[in-house]
Amino acid sequence: MASSSSSGMTGSSAANPPSHKPKRKIAVLGSRSVGKSSLTVRYIEDAFVDSYYPTIENVFNKTIRYKNKEYDCDIIDTAGQDEYSILNSRHAIGIHGYVLVYSIALRSSFEMVQTVYDKILNYTGTETVPCVVVGQKSDLHVQRQVSEEEGKALADSLKAAWVETSARHNANVAKVFELMLSQTEKGTTEGGPEPQPSKCIVM
Amino acid sequence: MYLGPGVAVPNGPTAGQNGLRDRAGSTATAVSSAAGSAKKAGSRRATQDEFGIASNEDSPVRGGKLKKFFGEDEAQMLQQQPLSAQNESLPPVAKKAVDESPWYLGPDYLPEDIVISAEGQVKGATLHALVARLTMHNTFDAPFNNTFLLTYRSFATTDELMNLLFARFRINSPEGLTAEQHSEWVSKKQMPVRLRVFNVLKSWLESYIYEGEDDRHLHTIRRFTDEMAHHGMENPAKQLGKLLDKREGGEGLTVRKLILPESAPPPVLPKTRNIKFLDIDALEMGRQLSLMDHGLYCKIKPAECLGKAWSNADSADRMAAGIKETISTSNQITGWVAESILVQQDLKKRAAWLKHFIAIADACRSLNNFSTMTAIVSGLNSAPVFRLKRTWDALNQRFIVMLEGMNKIMQSSKNFADYREMVHRLNPPCVPFLGVYLTDLTFIEDGNPDRLKSDERLINFGKRQKTAEVIREIMIYQATPYNLSVVPGVQRFIMANLISARNDNELYQQSLKLEPREREDEKISRLLAESGFL
Question: Which of A118, B36, B39, B144 minimizes the number of CB atoms within 10 Å of its CB?
Answer without folding.
Answer: A118
